[in-house]
Structures are given as structure tokens and as C-alpha cells.
Recover the amino acids of this structure.
């Protein structure tokens, strides 16, 4: 099995009934590991049925295949239908390239910094990179 | 003077039907394209994914566990062509005609894919190559060939390095 490591951390929101998790994926997501690893994210989503937003830190994700993109799309559907947002931070160029060719960046924007990503999920503005520059969090 | 055909390089790799081995073929593809073929880094990463998608389809649909798939790389100053051939005895065997129909349906911008699968060929391989061909083989397998041409209007960024990611601009 190809090596991949997924960790989840709570992000402090300062807002009641608003939950944000930072999901960091390190390694390669491919046919040999993605089905097994995806269960962790489904469990995360099912434990917080509403108002959960996910920030995916892909800074050290070296590779993802089309099935991984299928899972991202499915998670986006579940999160957005439960009043949450999903964004990506620091994707490598080859990962950003494939997300763009399948059209996923239209739904899940990519930010350069965690601060910008947090700003996008915690504010009412659409979670797009064209949102105003990140303001310091309270 | 050598003919165009003589200038082509052909490499064939036989791979057991185990997803574990596709990581090795991905590394091979990346290094081959970066160091040998006349494509830049950006396209080396793209071909890495194209090969992986073709192999995964061949393993999932066309070849029994424990048997082999055949991957062929042909490249020259004019093009790079990658073929993946299964042996046709897999549990989800699909004919060339069925594959053509499937890809045609799914590459339509109006097609909404709500599933986990189905983006590899129709979104990634179709968009990143100039030709995608399906052939039923005489012994029952399916051969899928993806070809990218150099020196065409679509190939203007063929030597491009991988740019660092700034914000993805929504179009």
C-alpha cells in the first residue's frame, strides 16, 4: 500500500455552533489506499452532522488520483448540504492542476495560506480566492 | 537520414494486477517524461496521472487478479503515446464500443458525475491528450491508447515547468 498519513485538528472559531477541522494529508492518495483512508473523513463528517467546515492542507500531498477526487467531491456534497464549507490550502502545483482540470476548483477553492482559508470558512463571503484579503482573526 | 519511425523509442512494461505496483509505474513515467521525452515537468506529472488512470481501469475492469497488464510507451520528437492493454478476463470487462460511448457521455459538460469513479478517462485523459482510442484485441482484451502531439496549437505549453500554486482563479 502506498504511504499516506491523514491527521485532523480542531480549528478555534470563536463562534458558537460553528465547527472547523483542519485535515492534513501527507504522502500519496492512490488506488491502493484511498478507499481505506476515506473512511476517516466520512466518520468525521457523520460525527458533526451540521455546521462543519473542512480545511484540507495539501502542502505535502504529492499525488492524488481520480478516485481521490471523487471522494473530495462526495465530501463537498455532504458538507455543503449541512451548512458547511470546504476549502483547500497550499496544494502542490500538480495536485492543483488535476483539481482544476476536473472542475473541482469551481466548488472547492485553493488558498495559499491557512489564514486566508480560515477567513473564507468563517465569514459569510463566498469561499473563493477572490474574497478580500485575510484579516487578522479575533 | 533516419526516418521518423526510426527515431521513435518504444518501451513495454508488464505489470501484475495489483494496485501496489502502479506506484512504481508512476515513478517510472515521471522520470521517463522528465528525462527522456521532449516534454516539460508539468506534462511529466500529467502523464504520470494518465498512466495511473489507464492502469487502474485495466486492473479494475479487464484483468483477473494475479494476471498481467501491458503498458507501452512510444515517444519521438513529434508525440508521446501510451497504451495499456488488459487481457479481457476481468469481472467488469467492457468493449471498445461501450468505452467510447461511456467517455462520450461523461465528457459532455452537462454531464453531472455524482459518483466516486468516472472522472479518470472522461475528464483527465480526454482533456490532457489529443487522441484517445479504444480497441478490442483479438484475444479478448481491451487496449486503450492516449496520444499527445507536440507542435500543435494545444501543445504550446508542452515544455512548461510546474508553476507554483497561487490562487486558482475561478473562470
Amino acid at each position: 500500500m502506498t504511504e499516506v498519513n491523514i491527521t485532523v485538528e480542531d480549528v478555534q472559531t470563536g463562534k458558537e455552533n460553528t465547527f472547523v477541522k483542519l485535515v492534513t494529508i501527507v504522502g500519496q492518495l492512490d488506488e491502493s489506499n484511498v478507499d481505506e483512508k476515506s473512511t476517516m473523513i466520512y466518520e468525521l463528517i457523520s460525527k458533526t452532522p451540521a455546521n462543519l467546515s473542512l480545511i484540507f492542507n495539501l502542502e505535502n500531498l504529492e499525488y492524488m488520483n481520480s478516485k481521490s477526487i471523487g471522494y473530495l467531491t462526495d465530501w463537498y456534497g455532504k458538507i455543503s448540504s449541512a451548512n458547511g464549507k470546504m476549502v483547500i490550502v497550499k496544494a502542490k502545483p500538480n495536485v492543483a492542476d488535476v483539481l482544476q482540470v476536473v472542475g473541482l476548483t469551481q466548488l472547492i477553492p485553493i488558498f495559499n495560506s491557512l489564514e486566508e482559508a480560515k477567513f473564507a470558512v468563517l465569514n459569510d463571503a463566498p469561499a473563493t480566492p477572490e474574497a478580500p484579503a485575510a484579516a487578522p482573526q479575533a | 537520414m533516419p526516418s521518423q519511425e526510426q527515431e521513435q523509442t518504444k518501451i513495454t512494461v508488464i505489470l501484475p494486477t495489483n494496485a501496489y505496483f502502479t506506484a512504481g509505474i508512476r515513478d517510472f513515467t515521471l522520470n521517463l517524461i522528465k528525462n527522456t521525452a521532449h516534454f516539460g515537468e508539468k506534462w511529466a506529472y500529467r502523464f504520470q496521472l494518465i498512466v495511473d488512470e489507464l492502469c487502474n481501469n485495466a486492473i479494475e475492469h479487464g484483468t483477473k487478479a494475479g494476471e498481467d497488464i501491458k503498458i507501452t510507451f512510444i515517444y519521438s520528437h513529434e508525440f508521446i503515446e501510451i497504451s495499456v492493454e488488459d487481457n479481457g478476463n476481468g469481472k467488469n470487462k467492457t468493449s471498445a464500443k461501450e468505452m467510447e460511448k461511456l467517455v462520450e457521455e461523461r465528457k459532455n459538460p452537462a454531464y453531472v458525475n455524482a459518483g466516486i469513479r468516472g472522472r479518470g478517462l472522461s475528464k483527465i485523459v480526454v482533456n490532457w491528450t489529443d487522441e484517445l482510442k479504444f480497441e478490442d484485441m483479438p484475444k479478448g482484451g481491451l487496449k486503450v491508447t492516449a496520444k499527445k502531439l507536440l507542435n500543435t496549437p494545444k501543445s504550446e505549453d508542452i515544455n512548461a515547468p510546474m508553476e507554483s500554486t497561487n490562487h486558482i482563479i475561478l473562470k
